[in-house]
Design a protein that fits this description.
Helix content: 10-25%
Strand content: 15-25%
Distance between the termini: 46 Å
Structural class: alpha+beta
Shape: flat
Order of helices and strands: EEHH
Number of helices: 2
Mean pLDDT: 83
Radius of gyration: 22 Å
Strand order of the largest sheet: 1-2
């Protein structure tokens, strides 16, 4: 499920054994009741079966070797660290 345009918090919980889903939406600073009444125009619902049906299942993911453009991170400093 998706609330188009929602800029507040959200969490999605899937309970596979029960075959259920719960979508949680919350707001920072404004009333969620007011946001629902004034801003909620639609919810987008997705079928898990349809998503699985259309999913890409590559046989092999060939990324190739790293090239010179990739800059690996520096090693962590050794020694005692003091907070500034």
């Amino acid at each position: 499920m998706r609330w188009p345009g929602w800029d507040g918090g959200q969490e999605h919980r899937f309970y596979t054994e029960a075959g259920t889903y719960t979508g949680l939406f919350w707001s920072n600073g404004k009333s969620i009741k007011e946001a629902v009444e004034k801003e909620l125009k639609s919810l987008e619902l997705y079928s898990v079966a349809k998503l699985k049906e259309n999913a890409l299942h590559p046989e092999e993911l060939n990324l190739g070797p790293p090239n010179e453009e990739w800059d690996p991170p520096s090693p962590a400093p050794v020694g005692k660290w003091e907070q500034p």
